[in-house]
């Protein structure tokens, strides 16, 4: 084993060689160094002459570590699977962890989603979903149906097709607007989970979809919560509107549940709030409890049968690490762990703690809105956040947050206790004041 690097040496090498997400090279902001993690806490390396310290993780590692870190059940699942095989190709072979996971996802997701394509990241699962929809229509003799429709304010990932259905104006992918496929964008849905249906907006969706139905392969949206596009909440009733419109105009419906799946909004899947089944559903992030990368694209028999009866009767997609046994074994254990606990009460408890702790910010100077849904808390500012200042303020309060644009938000692990929730809320309040 090589000798561990000191903090200064590690950061020097990081600056020289490591390209961090959404940053320049070399980086302009020095990252904090994590030594280990357990429960809801990250153990951080201190600077020169400083002792290590702990931060409560308010981000669940980009919304994935719903059980916290270093969980004995997930550790055991990984260790046992390592003793059998960590990986084997999925072309021409199969194995129990993947088969069990696929069957479990079919059981848990809305009725009618029967077939599971396992991928290795959420963005790739969206690529697969788009490919499924395009190939379905080509296979049934409608190749002209090759555009997508979505609503503004969305975010679906950083690879090519997902970027094309992210908000084209003001988003992080605006740079590529001249090169990406051109799709159809409706207005963003009205704010408010409990707001009900705005008849004028429903009519706008209908008019937009009907006008383009002849060329639309699918509508793709994030259900109930628009994540990295703005952390906005909308009424589940618009999902029912979209389901009815897609049925009426013969268009497929794709729900991107990568961020919302596995309980984050208070329902196991955000589609459950609306009681609908999409034609295609994308899952990721919390699928393995934050242990490793894995995603899934589920579809109905209509979609699978259409593709399989076409001129090219295969879905031509096959990631090298598709169906990775190690990831699938941990995902199975993570689902068992989630469903063995009263996750609904856990999420409600986190939501109640966030509502109480963030309430003092309502109406505060510089704050445009405070909103909570499930285990998601959002403070929207009336100005671009100073990420460096806001992060420092949160760290001083003992919590890790990652603000962006004009948003300071938190998605804590479901197991976060009362005291740690209070610390996260204090960090959000401090970040809002100083950011």
UniProtKB/TrEMBL annotation:
Cofactors that this protein relies on: pyridoxal 5'-phosphate
Gene3D superfamilies documented for this protein: Aspartate Aminotransferase, domain 1, Type I PLP-dependent aspartate aminotransferase-like (Major domain)
SUPFAM superfamilies: PLP-dependent transferases
Compartments, as annotated in UniProt: Cytoplasm
Residues of the site described as Participates in the substrate recognition with KAPA and in a stacking interaction with the adenine ring of SAM: 22
Biological process, per Gene Ontology: biotin biosynthetic process
Protein name: Adenosylmethionine-8-amino-7-oxononanoate aminotransferase
Organism expressing this protein natively: Streptomyces mashuensis
